[in-house]
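Handout, section 3.2

Students often ask what a structure token actually looks like in practice. Rather than define it abstractly, here is a full record for Flagellar hook-basal body complex protein FlhO. The first block is the sequence as you would receive it.
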Amino acid sequence: MLRGLYTAASGMITEQRRHDTVTQNISNINTPGYKQVSSVSHTFPEMLVSIIGDKQSGNSRRIGKLATGVFAEESLPSFVQGDLKETGKKSDFALLSNIGLNHPNTGELIPFDASGRYVDDNGEVFYRPEAFFTVMDNNDQLRYTRDGSFKVDADGALLTSQGYRVLDMNHNPVVLPAGVSLDALQSDSVGRLYYYNEVGTREVVANLGISVADRPQELVRDGNGVYREVSGADANIRQLTNREGAEVRQGCLEVSNVDPAQAMVDLMAAQRAYESNQKIVQFYDKTLDKAVNEVGKV
């Protein structure tokens, strides 16, 4: 009898985590470069239930399989390209990422779906490579972000909204030369920052460090809108080449790719499923109460 109680309790925990994931997405609708997260649930191993016959014949009859509960295994980010919003600020940058990938066996261009995922005939899963701005946190660790709402401090260093240092293609901090204002800073489509001096000659400041994760599903969300690569999970991070399908837009920000309507539907579904499991737990609680306090007196 307690099997159903455990199953309902695991369902409540799973739906609570799903609810928390959707709530996180909704709270970051206005966060530049935010990528929505989906909670992936799986069932525990199923058990085969049979009725055992008498000892002499040894016959048994198979009833079927019994599920033993569900759990939230992982949270997967969706790297779908968000819309670009023009801000007009020289320190705002957005990435348009549409990098192609050839199949290792056929050599043909992989037709990714809208979510950037593809499953071939053999069941092998491929993800579209994604481009990120390369930054360094306060512990001198490399991090990757799609939030291009940068700022310039008093020393001319280009920083993220969280104060992380924006790096160039050689992993050096981007610093504006003395006397060069932010209004004079310009960028081309490959992230080359430059300005025009007094005689009208273009002077290159730095090349923004645009990193590409060939396996973005291996990146771990680190908070503050950044991702990190963990040991043992090879995301194959490399520098962007000029021939790949990624483009830098100055004066724009990539908005969150969260769908508010779908998020509200998912939020209500998680709440209803939680309430359903809760009622099952209450039913088992009443059944156990009768078994102990009423049946036990007979």
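Discussion prompt for tutorial groups: The first strand starts at residue 37 and ends at 43. How would you have guessed this from the sequence alone?
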